[in-house]
Amino acid sequence: MNLRVARRFIRSHGLAVSRGPFKGLLFPSAAIGAGPLPAKLIGAYECELHDAVEERIAAKPRLVVDVGSAEGYYAVGFARRLPQAHVIAFDSDPEAQRLARVCAAANDVRTRFDQRGLATTERLAELDIDENVLLFVDCEGAEDELLDPDRLPQLRVTPMIVELHEHVVPGIGERLAARFRSTHELQTVWAADRATFELGMPFASWPQRQRDALLDEGRPASMSWLIMLPHVLR
């Protein structure tokens, strides 16, 4: 993301998410320059998951575990939408951890938000994970090691939304499907073209290159997610 374009956008738009399941989420100014912030503020970021996210919010989980929480978009977003839930956010980057804590404070969810470091199988095993939990995973290929029901049997009843990093770990999608096919209903969601996404005024009048930059999420065109809902919930 071109930082100059991002700053121009934020001067016009502000730092609150305007659309999508986390509408109203407020980012602190410290988050400017941290990843594809304009796409999140616009409501375009991972819009392929909006329906799945809304479905999980409607289920009212008591705990959300976000593995790879970055600056807190999902972790804080879920905390805002689920006032009865506790959120545990894992990320190995100290700066991302700091930004997520600041974001949680800015959105008044700090008392229900627990920021932790690197997620490991051992750390996940310590959590009280069951069918009333959402596990949201975006960890750059580490999903291959972490999401193993032989090592974490509680995953067999846990709803999960997992970003697949096939470009990092080839074959990860099929391996996870094979591990959970007998216990979960599986849905693969593929990244969609943003060319038709409606930016709205005044950004529709911006040069095409700058509009493309606003919607750029910095991901491969072939990115996909695996949504896994355990049979015990059906």
Describe what this molecule looks like in 3D.
The protein is an alpha/beta fold and 234 residues long. It has one domain (46-233): Rossmann fold (3-Layer(aba) Sandwich), CATH 3.40.50. It contains 9 helices and 7 strands. The chain has helices at residues 3-13, 37-42, 50-58, 73-81, 94-106, 121-125, 143-146, 172-180, 208-215; strands spanning 63-67, 86-90, 113-116, 133-137, 160-164, 184-190, 224-230. Strands 3-2-1-4-5-7-6 form a 7-stranded mixed β-sheet, sandwiched between helices. α7 links the parallel β4 (133-137) and β5 (160-164). The longest helix is centred in the middle third of the chain and has 13 residues, at 94-106. It is globular, with a radius of gyration of 17 Å. The termini are far apart.
Observed structural traits:
234 residues; alpha/beta; Rossmann fold; 7-stranded mixed β-sheet; 9 helices; 7 strands; 16% strand; globular
Assembly category: single chain
Reading side by side through the largest sheet, how are the strands ordered?
3-2-1-4-5-7-6
Mean pLDDT: 92
Distance between the termini: 41 Å
Indicate how many domains the architecture comprises: 1
Summarize the structure.
The chain has nine helices and seven strands. With 234 residues, it is an alpha/beta fold.
Layout of helices and strands, plus pairs?
Blueprint: H1 3-13, H2 37-42, H3 50-58, E1 63-67, H4 73-81, E2 86-90, H5 94-106, E3 113-116, H6 121-125, E4 133-137, H7 143-146, E5 160-164, H8 172-180, E6 184-190, H9 208-215, E7 224-230
Parallel strand pairs: 1-2, 1-4, 2-3, 4-5
Antiparallel strand pairs: 5-7, 6-7
